[in-house]
Amino acid sequence: MRIRSLPRAGLVVALSLCLHGGVLGCTRADDERVDPPSGSGAPSASTGASSSSSMSPAPMTTAPMATAPPSTTASAELDPYATAEPATSAVGKVSEEWLEAPDGRRRHFRLYVPTALRVGEAAPLLIALHGGLGTSEQFAVNSGFDELAEANGFIVVYPDGIRAAPDRPGLQTWNGGYCCGPAARQDVDDVGYVRFLIDLLEERLNVDAARIFAAGHSNGAIMAYRLACELSDRIVAIGVQAGSLGIDECRPKESVSVLHIHGLADTNHPIDGGVGTGVSGVDFRSARVAVRTLAELDGCDGEPLVDLVESKPDLEVSTWSNCASGAVVRLITVEGASHAWMGHRAASEGAAALVGEPYEDFDSSRAIWSFLNQHARD
């Protein structure tokens, strides 16, 4: 193991927040198939233009991968280790829409398009996956990704998982494999849904196909890992907090860079696996194993380089950068951090009671975008 002291450097991480603080697989609903009600969602309460509509799916097409390196012309300089700053106004366009996925289910998503997009310039796309019991609206508010998108010129879409029951809109989960809830038990095709959503957005917007990313928290992090395994032809890099690899066979067609953030005081999803303290009682897999598995699949050899951040003594950053594929795999552990999304306010007092108070001296959302923005596919 090689160790060095790191004053400041780019880093990686992941995203998506669970309602009530990010409890993985917290629903105990019956295994019935349930679809969201037809029609559009309520207008967003976020600042900026808002619209609500229903859209018909377009034919699925695969966009060619762009050859341009990551663009930084529209991006603000970010210190990935900085504490969260007061949110600036997100004045872009917000829309909440429904589509019919390939499996016939009606699915909802929330879309944020920033005003900072430059005419004729393709923009990165971030797919932000809420955690178990979460919603797109809740994750948008708690992560602050809209504000980052406005400042840095990327598009962010927040898909919704499936509901536990039609009258329980907050209890939504993803089929990440072994977890979580009714989405996993019903074997919902969430990978197909995300692929279809990417196709639709590429039809409507000037999306840079070389810079499509996924971020997730908790159950959303588990789903992001599944996308890295099964949608690597579209997903270039993922950033996650508090998740693990949920499928037994991961066979990506292309290399995918990974940033994984995990609090060492997270008892809802312990970093080394085991039964979490959330209401679901899920026996989680090891996050460390997930990171090493992706490093092996990306052709990284040897042990990671371990960085100790002088300005953040609670952080340890382990990086595999000697990868044959050119990918980067990074694990950031944070001493004293709970399951809650780091650097941002808890969804509610009840959330803090379930998953702990958010760690305030590190901003997961900022770290995620700083990492993801360094990657593009040739």
What does it look like?
With 378 residues, this protein is an alpha/beta fold. It has one domain (2-56, 66-372): Rossmann fold. The chain has nine helices and 16 strands. The strands form three sheets. A twelve-stranded mixed β-sheet has the order 1-14-15-16-11-10-9-5-6-4-3-2, with helices on both faces. A two-stranded antiparallel sheet has the order 7-8. The chain has a two-stranded antiparallel sheet with strand order 12-13. The longest helix is centred in the middle third of the chain and has 15 residues, at 190-204. It is globular and about 45 Å long.
* Element string (H = helix, E = strand): EHEEEEHHEEEHHEHEEEEHEEEHH
Could you tell me the radius of gyration in angstroms? Answer: 19 Å
Indicate the CATH topology. Rossmann fold
Oligomer: single chain
Report the CATH C-level class.
Alpha Beta
Contiguous low-pLDDT stretches (5 residues minimum) are 1-49, 52-74
The appropriate CATH architecture is: 3-Layer(aba) Sandwich
Label the structural class: alpha/beta
The backbone outline, from C-alpha atoms, is: globular
Please summarize the sheet with the most strands: 12 strands, mixed
Strand order of the largest sheet: 1-14-15-16-11-10-9-5-6-4-3-2
Let me know the average pLDDT: 81
For the record, give the distance between the C-alpha atoms at the N and C termini, rounded to a whole number. 31 Å
Share of helical residues: 10-25%
Overall number of domains:
1
How many E-type strands? 16
- Helix count, per DSSP? 9
Strand content: 15-25%
CATH homologous superfamily grouping:
Alpha/Beta hydrolase fold, catalytic domain
